[in-house]
């Protein structure tokens, strides 16, 4: 791959940068540092998530009762092959939701290297021998992630998981664990009540001088032989004591202090990693540790919640925002009937929506929001809606839409049924920010029917501005949705776009907004992976002709022709191409009398996600995702992830095009691919267009047909940047501050700052005027008061927007802030061996059942929460649990779900007795406390082996007491 000149400049410029302190964050760092074969945090995280997901699908039947084959996957494992094999290649299954979830974990992981409050803190990265503090942080992140999952805040859980994985992975790159000769992961970091191996004291020298880029054997022999843990210091804070190891590499300012050199294994480049020759070993252990943690998360949260966390099997969402004023009877009925049709048609299939959201509104009430995964419950919500009151405009539409945006999955589509303009226009910026951040398409179905009964309604139509729906037009255009003006008579038929657009694996082939013209030709391409192609045209047409790739035509007047089935209603034309749809270029010639929006959709597993990024060459080289809108005049990278690539879809991609709202090409750019991340591409954009644009990806399918996918939503580059400096955790009963900078890259002017949140935590609401000089910066903040009764694990969504008074520039930031327990129980439970009986001599398989063995353990919890659950994770024997009083007894077998222990003192300490035939010589016990800390206890014959299972001195009095009361099992 050719390296752009700007990248060479960055590579050279990085030679004088401040220190770097982690596996490199993402694949682009390999290019910036010329460390082509290095494993990054992104590589490690994606590989581990794919492998643990594969393990689950090997044991979890799909809807046909088929599980994933157990043969080893091809390398590298891709989501396309994984889900294609699980669901079958004949099914159009979207991987966008899965990759969206993975990208959120990866993004949070990378934030640890890019955010100023995280990147240089040694506790976040296992640096500067802050090992115990880093271990405590790991355990706190673990509890935080579990709390978010329990509260069903999966976005917050993915963020917490990303932070957790970054620190865990850094341990193997920054410590001397590999140099000690360890070939297995350190199980004591998270799931053990035991102490870590001793950390080298502050006055103990750990390294000798090294004058080369490669520092072999610079860790003192006594340190490794005595199993003293150490990690490298970097930078100047904290200052490195003499004789300690440095992080090392050309980015580390401490590398020239005694002892010179360094020990990091972040990359394969000797310029950046003095222990580069051990990078592969560190990456292998970091990957194994990530897999182990994800397995623990699967076992602790449960398989169902783990799959929800990763959006596996999460199909389309059905999201309605409905005006319930008295004039909306027909619209409510249309929404109800359309939802019923979708549910009845798709129930029990892969096409069935997995999330249902409803937000009713009028004035002044909004809500209550109803969210469910049960279609019958959703129908009851709809049936309970009644059209009452009203008769005057406007209504609280944007408040309801904001609520729906917060609770809808990313990449979904929201349908707003109303006949009234918005009363809450001040929320426009917050709604726009949420729409762009979550890439949600918003479609407005507006009914303006002057034939309705009711003199008040007809009279007010005469005095209201015809531009009162301009905000709806703007929002739908920004998001890539539609605004359809229709009537009561046609609303039921027009709502068919809901049925078309909520199919899973929906892709956009073409999206354009046009003005009135005599005849306007528009072309789109259909490739061999696409089926169920539908064209929606919002607006009125005079004439229409459809041309197939073979030159056949069908006119507007032929409703049921040989190419398509056409339906025309007030405000909408719906065209469904008849199967099988011929691959190639299709042309639409439309004669219009007003502005129209033309949208072409289909079903295909091949689609793409994208984001903008800038090259970061401060403490951690890589590409940092742009939060909010991209900044004009700054070299920008477009990062694309193509989903659905598999052995059955032989596709290739060549370039991207930035398109205006009317479909004209504004900028084209070639794609560069990542060799280790299939489906990941980057394109360098020297300057973004000054007008709104959308993104189109172009390539070819396996048969040589042009393959195109369009984003639909519009992006506007801006000259103002809103950079958030802190992401505080919200603790119940406390005040938290969010600091941010406003950068003005244009002339001196005044900006209006608006802040809004969905929980009412903001201390001061309203608009603030800030004067910012040309190329200047102003720092500001907002405070949030978290009530003492706020649920731990829940979250608040804070929307910040800044707009120049001349309306020429605007930007936004959407922050997801979790409510956390600042003093959780971090102490895992313990399992201590008491006795092993019997042994298993070498026996033929047919005789193993004639011999048996048994083991007994003491289960206890030294933390504040107490024992919570026990499960026999592996082992074909029988586990008997008996409480301390001996009055309660429970039996467990392999494959049985976790046993919930009662809150009574009878279960304060538990005697566990495991008995098995010699056909199974190993077993594993999973033990949780009520906070969610996990301990894995392994037992085997003839010798008892427990993970971290030395009988602590503190446990002996309990053992003695249990023995005296005769409750030890034999």
Automatic annotation (TrEMBL):
Residues 506-605 form the Hemicentin/VWA7 galactose-binding domain. This is von Willebrand factor A domain-containing protein 7-like. GO terms for cellular component: extracellular region. Residues 317-487 form the Hemicentin-1-like von Willebrand factor A domain. PANTHER family: NG37, VON WILLEBRAND FACTOR A DOMAIN-CONTAINING PROTEIN 7 ISOFORM X1. It comes from Lepisosteus oculatus. Residues 720-820 form the VWA7 Ig-like domain. It is found in: Secreted. Residues 607-714 form the VWA7 beta-sandwich domain. Residues 78-307 form the VWA7 N-terminal domain. Residues 1-22 form the signal peptide. The lineage of its organism: Eukaryota, Metazoa, Chordata, Craniata, Vertebrata.
